[in-house]
Amino acid sequence: MTKSNFPDNFLWGGATAANQFEGAYDVDGKGLSLVDILPDAHHGRWDYLFNAKEAMKMEEDFYPSHESVDFYHHYEEDLRLMAEMGFKTFRMSISWPRIFPQGDEKKPNEKGLQFYDRVIDLCIELGMEPLVTINHFDTPLGMLKKMNGWADRRMIDNYLNFSRVLFMRYKDKVKYWLTFNEINMILHIPLLGGGLDLEGIDNPEQVKYQAAHHQLVASALATKMAHEINPDFQIGCMLAAGVTYPNTPNPKDIFEAMTKDREGYFFIDVQSRGYYPSYSARLFKDMGVSIEMADTDAADLLENTVDFISFSYYSSRLASADPEMTDTTAANVFESLKNPYLKTSEWGWQTDGLGLRTTMNQIYDRYQKPLFVVENGLGAKDIVEDGDKIHDEYRISYLSENIQAMGEAIADGVVCLGYTSWGCIDLISAGSGEMAKRYGYIYVDRDNDGNGTLNRLRKDSFYWYQDVIKTNGVEL
To answer: Does the keyword Nucleotide-binding apply (predicted)?
Structure first.
């Protein structure tokens, strides 16, 4: 073996989200989450991400999240498969409506907590560090109905009540926490990102940025609370990231690319530096946005910044100031111009390992805080062949390229705590509601219509990632 670029204590693992793989949507007192009202891929699921009222009107349909891959009843098998790969960490989220069914109860649902007790205890027993996301696109549906989600400042106290229960319950078991998943997604998918219904709103940007402010304050106050409960807690923020390239050397394209990157960095500027960036003043003025702040908000943000910065990376982006440039593709919700130098997946995501290295260097240069790559992966259609074999060399190629680039970023001097590839076990796509768009090392026998045995199978990538972890990133 040659020398690894990865430190000896590097946290290799995988990532999931409660609302996309737990299932058991109405078991043991759980309330409904936002995802639970979104129908399957055949019924314009993407449209319903922007129209909650229409989604709630539907009475007869298939709702993928209701059973998903049923981790709720398969958690022992699944965690043991992850441990077999050698996971050092497992990124999970805790379903808010499983603990507080409507979101604003005073006392938690004990049966919901007992489920996570079992999951976290088994993780620790198997040698996997739990990495817990507090709010991963599952604000309780009750909070959308009652107060339009994070548009209402009362959500801060509801979130802190939820956070306090988790911090106290797991103060001696969980070290790493993320306050919000992909916090910048509130601008792009406001229903999932903030429990927001924007139908009929004259200035949606005002509502989105005011809701974002409430989340930023909630994150800061949760960070403060966490450090008071256990000073050893490590609290991170989480960004949907990916460097934006200018389409040409035209200065207008370069400025456009910088502007696109700032849309995401805006949030991390606040969470990592503790104050609104200077460019936000003009941004808000141009959009007609005026943020209402409590007298203590500025101090709370400044005094309670995060310990590390986590992010998702699937692809880079390409931007142009030329309105005639319209050949676009998808890039983790973000629309982007097609980059002719990159390969494109079935779902329009473009492969760019060097973009991950660039992204890591940019974020670390900007904030000088440890990074954690908590989502990275390739959604693809997998075929089960004779002997229950799944030959997913396309996934291995994508992940290998990205992990190598991550190692190069570390060699560049970037401090990185770990890597949790997305959907380490097949789960429901957040955007499309599909099972066919698979990410995992572990195949789950379930199709887009909910048919299948739910049997788990090891893909070729399972054994490949096992070797990656075993050799600490040397064997790619």
So the answer is: no
